[in-house]
Amino acid sequence: MYANEVASPDAQTIGDIVTKLQGKGAWHGLHQAGQFMSAVPKNEEVVAAFCHVYTFIEERLTQEERDLIQFDPVMLEHALCKYQQLMRELKDGPGSEEF
Fold first, then answer.
1. Which residues of the chain have pLDDT under 70?
2. pTM, to two decimals
């Protein structure tokens, strides 16, 4: 719940949004994390991958941890964007020869 007024979107809804942003941050994050079976995944595969990652993480965090980091589908989408940026930096940035 955002500002005690708006319900948080579910993983399916955010997964649908990620499909519309093909080639952008969260989509690339899923791809770099090896969540797609094909090079050009269908929309259903992208949604399923996002939901799978969300459920995987949610089941491993305690409620206290989820509350502390405000874990929800929006936060995961943001984290996937940052993940793909980190991977790009590690590959292309200073010290990349060590990676």
1. 1, 94-99
2. 0.85
What single DSSP character describes residue 96? G
- Calpha distance 24→80 (Å, rounded): 10
Give the span between the Cα atoms of 73 and 50, in whole angstroms: 9
From CA 86, how far away is CA 27, in angstroms rounded?
14
pLDDT of res. 19: 95
Could you give the 3-state DSSP secondary structure of residue 2? strand
Phi and psi, residue 93, nearest 5°: -85, -175
Q: Which two tokens stand for residue 74?
A: 């929006």
Closest by alpha carbon to 84, among 24, 14, 36? Answer: 24
